[in-house]
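Entry 14. Two folds queued back to back today. First construct below, sequence then structure tokens.
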Amino acid sequence: MRAILVGIKTKEKNEKELKNSLSELEGLVEAAEGKTLGKIYQKRDFPDPATFIGKGKVKQLKELAEGIEADTIVFDAELTPVQISNIEKITEVEVLDRTDLILQIFSRRAKTRQAKLQVELAMLEHELPRIYGQKGKALSRIGGGMKTKGAGEKLGEIKVRTIKDRIAKIKKELERIKKQRYQQRKWRNKDPHLLKVSLVGYTNVGKSTLLKRLTKRDTFISDQLFATLDTKTSFINFPDIGKKAVITDTVGFVKNMPKEIMDAFMATLEELEETDLILHVVDISDENWQEKVESVDKILRKINVHEKPQILVFNKIDKVIPSQEYLEDSDATLLSGDRESVIVSTKEGWNIDKLYDLLKKHALQKQTI
């Protein structure tokens, strides 16, 4: 993928927010094994209903794509079927919106049966409205050249029915997996000596590295957005107090997570409903970390787990200071407000022992309840 990124600056989005959003979109392109060749944005009060950025701007986009040999245009927004069709017709290159791109990444990264089914469900639910939005002529091309309006409508109905049938089958299978996971969680709940911990955070904050540090478990690690999608669970033993913790990683979040993806991955987030403690991992080297903490907090409120005990784990401090000697015990408290917190470097292993002690404290508190 050789991509041009496109965004619009509206009254609701200032220039800094736009640039941050386009920067994140560039990270998504990289995660999809693509390369960003250029970024453009336009100031508009409202998106153009036909082409999102206006026909004149789309023609300029076509010239730019030809000049730098781009094969894909990625919009930092949700596009309608009509907008995608019109833009592709003018530019003669593939057009993706933000959700398309995220779904491509998810499709590449899903490994387990559950994750693959969740991704397929999200893709089908994203595709369905677009089929409804297509005209008879477009649908007739699916049938290998039939030109009549009636044939197109018939083929469209067949495709819609096929997709709906597949969606129903996937939901049934995911419900079966959900029941299995519920039984596993039910078994864990019977153990009073077991502290249930969940890792949450914006994508690419280092949750997988932290899981490996705490549990000594090998897991795939990459400096990319959505490097891992599958739920991972492992244990920490506290032999001196006769307790242990089960730690579950969840899929990383992004701002304005597409609805299809949130719906499809709700089964993964259900782990949070019965957790005793949430480790909210934050990339402290990111200048926009506060905004991303708010984005994650918003999702936690949406699934009604925001009042559970929480530790803010400020990670990647090695990118901010040259050595652990610069860390002071009071630093994390100043950053976190009323939540427990600790500053760590999962890469270098700094302060992992302090986080371990915090987990042990919560394990002991559960013992006394």
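Second construct, same run, same settings:
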Amino acid sequence: MQTISIIIPVLNEEKFLEQNKDILKSYIAEKNEIVLIDGGSRDNSVHIAKLIGCKTFVTKASRGYQLHLGALQSTNELLLFLHADTELPENALAIISEALIQNNKHWGCFEVCFSNSKFIYQIIAWFMNKRSCLTGIVTGDQAMFVKRESYFASGGFPNFSIMEDIQISRQLKKIAPPVCLSEKVITSGRKWESQGAFKTIIKMWSLRFLFFLGVSTNKLVKLY
């Protein structure tokens, strides 16, 4: 199995870093690296990351900028962009290595499911997964992975605080379509739970529609 650089952008994520510290340590023990890019947390995120053994950097709070900085600071040939509140499936790193190296693919993602098991969240996840495979547009919750060469050939993540995943999917699609793995990551449903599932669906699709119309991400982030 080829080693992987796991890039995690955070902003006040001590809860999830503490919760997942053992699995993160196990990745490092297997000679992978974790590059954590903090956007100016006011909690103990940076302290916990250092205790785990992550390569840790502090910069401005902009997820696209944080992700790209993480890629620049990484050293391995395979990159995995992981949200702090997303849990990978068992043997995820071996699965990624096989998908990209043995099957000679450029990039891809996992299917997603939510930590909240209510039926509405199962429906949302089903549509997210089908959309990604049909359109090649991958969201950050799906743990995007990519060969280093392909990532930088695409131009990398833009300096966006929102829609950075949509934009890089567009860029990577010009190189090759994504491989959509059937294994599932588990991501937190906190965003959906705090604002209500239907309200969040309407908001996210409205923001994406405005983005496709060319509205700047600086304006969109104020509506987020």
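Quick look at the second one. The mean pLDDT is 93. The longest strand covers residues 179-187.
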